[in-house]
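step: validate -> pass
step: tokenize input -> pass
step: predict -> running
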Amino acid sequence: MHAWDVAAALGVRLRPAEEVFAAALAVARRVPADPAGRGPGFAFAPALKVPEGAGPLAETLRLLGREPRAWPGTGG
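step: predict -> pass
step: emit ->
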């Protein structure tokens, strides 16, 4: 996730191996989604709805509260 944050800040596309996407998604699915532990001052924003058919990167980003469409060109 931090690699995507850096890529988004630099305006470049993140291109890790597919195995990295799979591992990141598995971890993101385990992060507690309790709103009491999400938001300002916490590591992650509230989880966003994951649209049907979202790819592994987009799903990971949205589960961790990031809106990939807000950062065009990053591969989200």
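step: describe -> DSSP finds three helices and no strands in the chain.
step: cleanup -> pass
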